[in-house]
Amino acid sequence: LPAGCKVCFVALLQSFSHYNLVAQKLGVNLRAAKERGQLVFLEGLKSCLDLVFGEKEEEESGKPSPLQFMSESNSNLKALFDFVRTSLTPSDSDSWKGPVLLVDDLSVLLSLGAAPVAVLDFIHYCRVVVCSQLKGNIVVLVHSNEDSEDEENDLVVNSLCHHSDLILWAEGLATGFCKDVHGQV
């Protein structure tokens, strides 16, 4: 945001308030960025609750919910992709630099019932639009554990590793918790 990029933040793990508090500690005001149109924020937790309890976002905006796959028999993430594409495609009046897609946490889509192939298709199409066509960047958080028996998550993580330009692994210290240092990069 401070670099002047247009940002689409698909937040599936935490609320807007959480990210706003963290950003304020870093000197960034997410609320102001939203108001000026630089940040498009999808609050996944709220969208999921609205779908589960029958409050339709579709009635308000005229568009299907980005997480519509939860209430359908297929795990098609097309509505989520359309949300990302629409959010980051520049209009004539936009003066933002390259677009950035942030997804926190891609593993949540699997927990919500999306198939691994649908998640990988979603990321593939996002890469085509955001990286190739719009010359932007994608940053994705995925949880992974070597001891995990979650084959679907492992498939997504391994595929993302093969298609990523930069991978940062964060893990706890082998010696346990430490007050000053909480992990290693």
From TrEMBL:
Q: In which pathway does it act?
A: tRNA modification; 5-methoxycarbonylmethyl-2-thiouridine-tRNA biosynthesis
**InterPro entries per UniProt:** ELP6, P-loop_NTPase
| Superkingdom per UniProt | Eukaryota
GO cellular component terms listed in the entry, alphabetical order: elongator holoenzyme complex
List, in alphabetical order, the GO biological process terms annotated in this UniProt record: tRNA wobble uridine modification
The UniProt similarity line reads: Belongs to the ELP6 family.
Q: What is this protein called?
A: Elongator complex protein 6
Q: Which gene encodes it?
A: Elp6
